[in-house]
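anyone seen this seq b4? input:
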Amino acid sequence: MRITLLQPDLYWHDPVANRATLEERIFNVAQSTDLIILPEMFTTGFTMDARAVAEPMNLTTFRWLKQMAAQTSAVVTGSYVVQEGGHYYNRLIWMQPDGQFDTYDKRHLFRMAGEDGIYTAGSDRLIKEWKGWRICPLICYDLRFPVWSRNTDGQSHEFAYDLLLYVANWPAARRTAWNTLLQARAIENLSYVVGVNRVGTDGNGHPYTGDSSIIDFKGDILFRHADSEIVHQHTLSLDELSAFREKFPANLDADSFNLSL
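predicted toks r here
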């Protein structure tokens, strides 16, 4: 699978500028791709002013994602602020080229910024099949919670996914945790892990170093880039993943558990 990561500096509370910039970079990608990954809250930066920036479903950003997916023949995914049913969500959209889509609402809301008092938490993981891969997209603070990220349903020893994604606005102050936990999630889940973050400084004065990364199933860093904007393409091998899982089936010794929400 060929994936494309976009690590931008985001304009604060300016969806028009962010969509325009990201669109230009997407269309300047020289080679075809299967999956395009954008950061968390890619239209605004990580904001608690949901009332000012939220969009209903099926409006401007949703339609933009649909257009990007159709024109690139790739899945496009990332999160933005959605208002639905009187609630605000930090919602990831998984948009396919044919216009079919799924959503994932961030489960673990970052209480240290007050996110839990403004947004409504999700209750279900999303796992999608695409081009022969099973992919689980999660959002930022979810990275700190290994049970939610675990590569099983808790009862069987079968793998739930092959690729674990984290879209994020993860600040520079905690970059060591970001880099360490991405590798940990790959090792413990025998899976590729991709983390896509932003750079620059947001409207609250918080700096971001990016450190967008691709980690393989052994925890080896295949790609990491810090401190500047970048568009990066990388090809992942399902054959190599399957061969390693067959050689090192640690999943067969995993503990069973029940997850209560």
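The mean pLDDT is 96. The chain has one domain: 2-253. kinda curious what u guys think
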